[in-house]
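== Folding task for one protein ==

=== Format: two labelled lines per protein ===

==== Paired sequence and structure tokens ====
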Amino acid sequence: MSEPQPEQERPDDEALGDLLGRLVEDGKGYAQAEIGYYRTLARSKLRDARAMLWMGAVSIGLLSAALVALTVGLVLTLAQYVGPGWATLIVVVTISAIAGIMARLAWVHVKRIIGEKP
């Protein structure tokens, strides 16, 4: 029986160091591509957040104006029946009561969020 011959190194085989070097370089390229992707994604999200913020601010401003107009309209409508002073008082007390109830409900949810029992 003949002994197995030691394998001769083929010329197209690369040294382990060369393979590891290529692996490290490929890993760096992959990491840089991932960083670029997430950087682009973050920029896109920031652009969307900015648009959402200014559109939300305009929406809140317009809603506030509509609520002021509604309040004035209620006062003017009631003023025909009870006079301007009483009409103002009725509208202010009613709106304040509604705001107080909503604030109380909001506070209950805040307590739930932070873990306290309401």
